[in-house]
Amino acid sequence: MNSANEIPLEPVTKKTRHLPGDELVWMFILGDMCCFSLFFGFFAYYRVNDAAVFQQAQALLDVQAGTANTILLLCSSWMVALALRAAKRGLLRQGSWLMLLATLLGSGFLWLKGMEYVDKTELGITFLTNDFWIFYYLVTGMHYFHVLLGVPLLLYFFFSLRRAKKLNEQDISNLECGGIYWHMVDLLWLVIFPLIYLLP
């Protein structure tokens, strides 16, 4: 029996976790990651069976350019995360400038990677030179296309934050979807770079 002096306990409410973005974006990313994983697996298989050819071709890659591109994408992804945090706090002007910086860093990746493609073409290296270059152009080309789609998206968010006076839940969700996509692009390169450029 409860005493008259006892204070009734308040019901415990569970905190609901917020899934950033939209479920469809997560489904797209899961499918995209599975697709790239298959290519990574095929690359590893063919490399084991023809290690000498792969190592000789890999020696022609510009590791410094690859490292610079890694830094560009990491910094760009960081800027996107900071921009989203600023936007959620209502610091829209700060968020817009961070998004612009992310856009410029992503554009730097496109330029540097494009120059690398030009360099390989001038050396006479094509898609059909050998198995290594098939995978090189296929995997990095697919990733390049993802970055090519992502940079205008970041630029769109820059202008959106620049013009907005206040964000609603849908605006935040859209920003989260864009951020999730860009982080996926970053994550993919963090696998591509060591796998293709550095793997001994």
Description:
The chain is an all-alpha fold and 200 residues long. The protein has one domain (38-198): Cytochrome c oxidase, subunit III, four-helix bundle (Four Helix Bundle (Hemerythrin (Met), subunit A)), CATH 1.20.120. 78% of the residues lie in helices and 0% in strands. The protein has 6 helices and no strands. Helix 1 runs parallel beside helix 6 (169-198). The termini are far apart.
Count of strand segments: 0
Content-based structural category: mainly alpha
The total tally of domains equals 1
CATH hierarchy: architecture: Up-down Bundle
Shape: elongated
Give the strand content: under 5%
Provide the helix percentage.
Answer: over 70%
How far is it from the N-terminal to the C-terminal residue, by CA? 73 Å
Give the CATH level 1 class. Answer: Mainly Alpha
Uncertain residue ranges: 6-14
Task: Write the element-wise H/E pattern from the N-terminal end onward.
Answer: HHHHHH
By CATH, the topology is: Four Helix Bundle (Hemerythrin (Met), subunit A)
Summarize this entry quickly:
With 200 residues, the chain is mainly alpha-helical.
Topology, element by element:
Layout (H helix, E strand, L loop, with lengths): L22 H27 L1 H8 L4 H26 L3 H31 L8 H33 L5 H30 L2
For the structure shown, list the relevant keywords:
200 residues, 6 helices, elongated
